[in-house]
Design goal:
Oligomer: single chain
Strand content: under 5%
Largest sheet: none
CATH superfamily of the largest domain: Tetracycline Repressor, domain 2
Length: about 210
Amino acid sequence: MKRVAMKTTLSRRESNKIDKLRRIRAAAEKLFITKGFDDTTTREIALEAGVGLGTVFVYAKTKRDLLFLIVNDDLDATVITAATTVSPRRSILANLLMISRLHYDLMTGQPDLWRLALREMYFYANGTQAERFLQTRERLIRLFADVFAHSAKAGGSKQASEVAGWMAFALFQVESRRFLMHEKPDIDGAMAELGRQFRVLIRGALPKSG
């Protein structure tokens, strides 16, 4: 009987933690969008979520941490989906555009939130949520490089693939910001422009024989 009671208690405690985390994320997202990231305080987020300020600090030490507490799950899931969708049977261009399109679709769902995230990710290296964000970003960079990796079979090199992948990621980052500059982001227009730039990169990255 004691063992059953302990399991019930632990389950309830875990459920309470999940509920508090959900409320903190919802409160932070609401206030960042309605009041503005710069004008919102962590204390206001705690009050909106109905939790103590110390509870907020368990998950995030700063407002920037709170912002990435909101976006990290979706960003991580998008990279995982992209990794499972990339195929060597597709062209390099098709794979690059597929990866980019998945991220643009994500951003289009909450453009105001992602404008904040893109602004705040610069120099984001320290914080409770930073390690997870940086790991996800590195997986995305490697994914871009993997798309170019098959060119090594045609006489290219692993190093060239890694450089080309990094350059594709850099183009994607710059164009993502331009994409979100518009009040109503145009995915098709953004993809056409990104495709134009990727084509130039691919021509320079592939070995002459390819």
